[in-house]
Amino acid sequence: MHAWPASEVPALPGSGRDLRIHDTATGGRVTLVPGPVARIYVCGITPYDATHMGHAATYNAFDLVQRVWLDTKRQVHYVQNVTDIDDPLLERAVRDGEDWTALAERETTLFREDMTALRMLPPQHYVGAVESIPKIVPLVERLLSAGAAYELEGDIYFSVAADPSFGAVSGLDAEAMRLLSAERGGDPDRPGKKNPLDPMLWMSARPGEPSWDGASLGPGRPGWHIECVAIALDHLGMGFDVQGGGSDLVFPHHEMGASHAQALTGEHPFAKTYVHAGMVALDGEKMSKSRGNLVFISKLRRDGVDPAAIRLALLAHHYRADWEWTDAVLTEAVERLARWRAAVSRPDGPSADALVEEVREALADDLDAPRALAAIDRWAAAQTADGGTDEGAPGLVSRTADALLGVAL
Ligand code: 5CA
Ligand code: ZN
What is the pTM of this model? Predict the structure, then answer.
């Protein structure tokens, strides 16, 4: 699959700082020190509806991670998937009497347009589940022959007992895992499983549903977690720097993914660091396609909202916080964008050398974007109140907002 076009990232004077970030697996802060090429996998959309503010907030967080790395003069190797075959996609296609492939393609196209408008850096590899099936099947076969998977009425399940470090990503107890498994695509109550938490690796063909050649597995379609493992191992290998997604993916998705990969390779860890973004809510409930309480990026764009204002609305919240979308959030972002644009449109202004370092430090400190915005607010206020004589300052502020925050002024 192709990704979307990259917006240019201006180089800033000096050098950025290493990112200190909250790691879900250890529950504490770690300093990321990737090699010259930093490797990141971020879980992509299931394309059965348009990109909403929650998705955008999560992708914004991982865009910032990459901008910090680029500022330290590293290259970034970024991989993202598209879950273009899964139960919710098929259910929506049936509900709307639409072909599931047409639905997936349309929503993926819209997602690319939204990401481009928001200046999110594209992945080098944007990979669909369907195109990955030839990579997934041999992995499931290997898990079976290693005794880490078993068959149940034609379906293949992963045995969580095969990974001695199962549980290390989420740190949850068995009861909490069971509840989340039932809520998020698992089937803990299916009789015959070795452990109720065991997730499906390969679902045998169901009448009326699409299926693919599974070689020795028989016709069917892949489970959700093995999809991301196959794509990550193919393009990044074990021990990549960051596995990212929203906090709704901590369990079971990222826990199971880590276990699949560890059982497959005998190596630990799958990802060095697990980073999760908070959930965006609307009207008091998590914004989700299944609930339908959505604010779509594409709808706001159609209504004439500047994508840079949407980006500022996202940046005004710390990535780990759960927050609520309201009209006031957008109004404030629109006003901030206007203030910043007015401030950088003057020929000179107060020196911005210290500001670059403040923004760098705020982001290096667990991606504290609200603090970065406050720093630019102060520069803009000083520009309005007293002005200044530094001719390079407005340009430097523009480049800083663009390079580190993805905001084009
Ligand atoms: N395709 C899978 C991941 S492999 C999936 O979770 N797709 S999704 O379309 O449901 O979500 C895409 C990304 O947005 C995931 O990282 C998810 O954690 C995140 N996300 C979903 N809803 C929200 C929300 N309300 N707030 C913040 N992030 C969200
Ligand atoms: Zn995933």
Answer: 0.97
